[in-house]
């Protein structure tokens, strides 16, 4: 881990600071908008939905910008500036139009951020370092988010705390932007003619990769699972398990439980990644799918036994933490491995879009399961467990596709650390320039 290139450490430090600010607002933003400003829950939902839609288009544009002469670093700086503006606009929110404007900026900033951040790591680390590099970045994300959530809980009860919360969020984005501008290298291309092709044709070229398409379907399923943890499980513990078990579970306890889950993800990120390092990316994703299956079955079984909400929550969130930290670094590293140099941003943009799609599908599914009554809600976890077994079969097929693709590739001479190219690309690699 300590042998990772300097830019990876710099970017991870910036991501840590940025996620501290996010942690201040991620759980408490909707609460203060409704309870302190006086907006309706519908107003907040519409604004968040608008941010998600804008974020989808921003992700698409981000991928194209990263693969153009504009480059990943400038796209990353653009995301930081837009996110900073969004946070300060939200700090000044007093009605629905100002909330909507702030959320649109926030959604756009987040959309530009993820493909650019992932592409920067892919370009500055060797292929054999990608899993460690993405592990370090995810560790920084989870640690910063945990610190922010804990600190935010101390401020949320203060009158007009939303101004402080979003101002801190804006400052954290600004610090991230300054660090990236000063310390990160510019990712320049040796062959600028690689960027001359029309952007739409480049997207169609990426979507013609069969291996990538199979992976994208798998990745959407993974993100649906992650959305169940954040959107469905809190309601399930509060509305279903308390009814079935007859044991009350206050909202504050649920908040503490999910804060612990975030911290556990940070603690487990590096050890789990190291334990899976001997496996290729597809097998590591298969381990994650298996743990998801065990977690879903555990939720179902413990609910059938009418176990208390605390025990069900601890068991489920512990297993899901393992599944998430096994999934995230391998997923990003696998896409970086698949991507030709000239399409890296688009490939990673498609990877990021899976999260948008998964979070569009997952929460409504979970909500309908809970609204259908206790029996269906309990059995819903068993349905998800069955889907994860299907995922294991698809992952096996993906592994076979990857193996056949590798068999068709000609052996290449190993590249130097600064210029190692993707074995799937016949084009010249990127180089790093200050």
Written account of the structure:
The chain is mainly α and 434 residues long. The protein has two domains: 1-196, MFS general substrate transporter like domains (Growth Hormone, Chain: A); 203-409, MFS general substrate transporter like domains (Growth Hormone, Chain: A), CATH 1.20.1250. It has 14 helices and two strands; from the N terminus they run H-H-H-H-H-H-H-E-H-H-H-H-H-H-H-E. Strands 1-2 form a two-stranded antiparallel ribbon. The chain is globular. The protein starts with 5 loop residues before the first helix and ends with a strand.
Structural class category: mainly alpha
Overall pLDDT, averaged?
A: 85
Give the strand line-up of the largest sheet.
1-2
Counting H and I runs of at least 4 residues, what is the number of helices?
14
Q: What's the CATH topology name of the largest domain?
A: Growth Hormone, Chain: A
Task: Using brief descriptors, characterize the structure shown.
434 residues; 2 strands; 2 domains; Growth Hormone, Chain: A; disordered C terminus; mainly alpha
Please write out the topology.
Elements: H1 6-25, H2 29-35, H3 41-66, H4 71-91, H5 96-124, H6 130-155, H7 161-183, E1 186-189, H8 199-207, H9 210-245, H10 251-275, H11 281-304, H12 309-338, H13 344-371, H14 374-408, E2 430-433
Antiparallel strand pairs: 1-2
Helix pairs in contact: 1-6, 1-7, 3-5, 3-13, 4-5, 4-7, 5-13, 6-10, 6-12, 9-12, 9-13, 9-14, 10-12, 11-12, 11-14, 12-13, 13-14
């Amino acid at each position: 881990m300590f042998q990772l290139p300097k830019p990876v450490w710099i970017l991870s430090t910036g991501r840590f600071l940025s996620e501290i600010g996010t942690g201040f607002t991620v759980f408490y933003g909707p609460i203060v908008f409704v309870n302190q400003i006086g907006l309706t829950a519908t107003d907040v939902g519409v604004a968040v939905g608008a941010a998600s839609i804008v974020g989808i288009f921003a992700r698409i544009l981000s991928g194209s910008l990263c693969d153009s002469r504009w480059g990943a670093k400038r796209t990353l700086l653009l995301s930081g500036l837009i996110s900073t503006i969004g946070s300060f606009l939200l700090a000044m929110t007093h009605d629905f139009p100002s909330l909507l404007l702030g959320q649109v900026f926030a959604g756009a900033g987040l959309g530009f951020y993820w493909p650019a951040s992932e592409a920067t790591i892919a370009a500055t680390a060797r292929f054999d370092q990608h899993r460690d590099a993405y592990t370090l970045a995810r560790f920084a994300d989870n640690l910063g988010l945990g610190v922010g959530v804990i600190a935010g809980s101390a401020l949320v009860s203060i009158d007009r705390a939303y101004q402080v919360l979003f101002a801190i969020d804006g400052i954290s984005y600004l610090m991230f932007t300054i660090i990236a501008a000063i310390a990160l290298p510019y990712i320049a291309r040796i062959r600028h003619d690689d960027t001359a092709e029309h952007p739409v044709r480049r997207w169609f070229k990426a979507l013609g990769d069969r291996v990538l398409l199979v992976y994208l379907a798998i990745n959407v399923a993974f993100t649906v699972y992650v959305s169940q943890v954040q959107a469905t499980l809190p309601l399930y513990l509060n509305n279903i398990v308390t009814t079935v078990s007859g044991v009350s579970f206050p909202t504050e306890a649920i908040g503490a439980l999910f804060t612990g889950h975030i911290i556990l993800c940070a603690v487990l990120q590096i050890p789990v990644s190291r334990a899976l390092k001997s496996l290729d990316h597809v097998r590591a994703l298969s381990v994650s799918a298996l743990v998801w299956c065990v977690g879903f079955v555990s939720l179902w079984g413990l609910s059938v036994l009418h176990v208390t909400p605390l025990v069900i929550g601890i068991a489920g969130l512990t297993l899901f933490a393992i599944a998430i930290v096994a999934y995230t670094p391998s997923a990003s590293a696998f896409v970086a491995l698949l991507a030709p140099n000239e399409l890296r941003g688009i490939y990673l943009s498609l990877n990021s879009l899976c999260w948008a799609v998964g979070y569009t599908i997952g929460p409504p599914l979970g909500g309908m399961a809970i609204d259908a009554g206790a029996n269906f809600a309990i059995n819903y976890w068993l349905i998800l467990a069955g889907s994860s077994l299907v995922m294991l079969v698809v992952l096996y097929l993906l592994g076979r596709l990857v193996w056949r693709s590798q068999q068709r590739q000609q052996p290449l001479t190993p590249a130097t650390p600064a210029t190692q190219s993707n074995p799937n690309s016949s084009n010249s690699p990127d180089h790093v320039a200050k």
